[in-house]
Amino acid sequence: MARIKAIIVKEFFHILRDPRSLTIVFITPVIMIFILGYSFSFDLNRIDAAVVDFSQSDFSRQLVNSFANNRIFVLHFPAGGTSGKSALRAAEEMLRKEKIKEIIVIPVDFSRRLTVHGQSDFGIIIDASNSNTANLVFQYNEMIVLEFMAEMKKVGQLFKLHTKIYFNPEAKSSFFFIPGQIAAILLMISAMLTSVSIAKERETGSIALLFISPLKSYEIIIGKTIPYIMVALLDGVLTLAFSRFWFGIPIRGSLLVLLIFAVLYIIAGLSLGILISTLAPTQKAAMLAAQILTMLPSYLLSGLIFPIDSLNPVLQAISYAIPATYFLRIIRGVILKGSELKHFLFEGLMLVLLGAVLLLAASRKFSRQRKAVQ
Fold it and tell me: What is the rounded (10 degree) CA torsion for 368, 371, 372, 374?
C-alpha cells in the first residue's frame, strides 16, 4: 500500500503541474453541455416566407394575416409588389439564396371561387434542401390552414392547400446531411494538416532554423499553408465523387463555382490549423485542438444539423465566425439548387475575411515567438 500511495501522490503532482490539461478536462464538458443544451432543438423559432398574392382581395388578405399573426412566421413581400410574375420570380430567387424557407402563392381567382363555389385553393412552395426543416414548415402550414378553415366555416367556405417541394422533392435526408458532412470533414482535415506543422518543428528543435532564417514570418506561414491546399482539395474531390456515385447525391450546379469557393474555404481551414500550431505546445495538443475547434462547431453551430435560427442568440453570433456556416450554404446551394456564383458573394467575402484574419493572427503570433527567442 505504501508503494501504491507513492504512485498516487506522484500522479497527482503530474496532474497539478499540467494546468492546461486540467483546464481542458474541466472546461470542455461545461462548454459541450452549454452548446448541446441550446443547439439540440429541432423547433423552429422563425419561418421566413414570401407572399405572392395574385388575388389582392379581402379573403386573400385575411389568409395572409393568418400567417402574419403567427409569432413564428415572418412575411416578406418581393420587389415589385406582391402580385405578378415578376414578384414570383423575385420570390424564387429569395428561396434559392436561402433568404426565405417558403413562398405562399394565392391564385388570382381565390376570392371568386370562395364566393361562387364555396371553396378555393392556394399553393405553398417549400425549400426542402433541409428535409427536417421542410417537414416542420409543412406542419406549421397545416396548423395555420386548419385554424383559418375553422374561422371560414362560419360562412361555409373552405379551401385546399397545395404544397410543392423544391430542390429535394423526395425529401431525402442524405441529400441534406452528406453535403454538410463533406463541409465539416473538409474543414477538420484542412485544420489538422497544418495544425502539427509548427508544433512538430518545435518538438524536434528544427524551428530554431526557421527563426534564424532570412524569411519573414508571414512568408513562413504562407509557405507552410500553400502545399496543403492541393492535398485538402484532392481530399474534397474524393469525398464529393464518393458521395455522388455511392449515395447518388445530385450535382445540379457548376463544379467550377464549387471549386472556387472550396479553395477559399480550405485556405480558411488551413489558416486555422496554422494558428493552432503556433499556440499548441505539442503535436498531440495541436491535433486535439484542431478536432475540437472544427468538428463540434461545424456539426452543432453551422446549420449542418440544427437550423441557425433555432439557436440561442449567443450561439448564433458565434456561428458567424465559423467557416463551415458559409461553405454549407455554398455546397448545398450548388449541389441541390444549381445556384450560381452571384448567389454567394457574401459567403465568399466572409471566407476571404476569415482566412485573412486567421493568417494574420498566426503570422503575428509566430513573429512574437521568433522575437522572444532571438
Answer: 160
Q: List the grid coordinates of 82.
A: 406582391
Q: Which amino acid is at 233?
A: L
Distance CA(302)–CA(318), nearest Å, equals 9
What residues does CATH 3.40.1710.10 cover in the chain? Answer: 47-166
The model carries a pTM of 0.74
Q: Which residue has the cell 476569415?
A: 354
Cell of 53: 398574392
Per-residue pLDDT of the chain (374 residues; tens, 9 = 90+): 666 666 666 656 665 676 765 666 566 666 656 665 555 556 677 888 999 888 888 888 888 888 888 888 889 888 655 556 788 888 888 888 888 899 998 888 888 887 777 777 888 989 887 777 888 888 888 888 888 777 766 544 466 777 887 877 766 777 778 888 888 888 988 888 888 777 777 777 777 777 777 777 778 788 878 888 888 888 888 888 888 888 888 888 899 999 999 999 999 998 998 889 888 888 888 888 888 888 888 888 888 877 787 777 888 888 999 999 999 999 988 998 888 898 899 999 999 999 999 989 988 888 887 777 66
| Residue 41: closest CA among 327, 315, 263 | 315
Report which of 208, 191, 213 is spatially closest to residue 266, judged by C-alpha positions. Answer: 191
DSSP H/E element including 97 = none
Grid cell at residue 155: 360562412
β-bridge mates for residue 75, sequence order: 49
Overall CATH class of domain 47-166:
alpha beta
Q: How far apart are CA 273 and CA 280, in angstroms?
A: 10
Are the beta carbons of 58 and 111 closer than 8 angstroms?
Answer: yes
Check residue 342 and report its DSSP letter. Answer: G
Which of 198, 179, 182 has its CA nearest to residue 266? 182
Is residue 26 exposed (0-12), middle (13-18) or buried (19+ Cβ within 10 Å)?
exposed
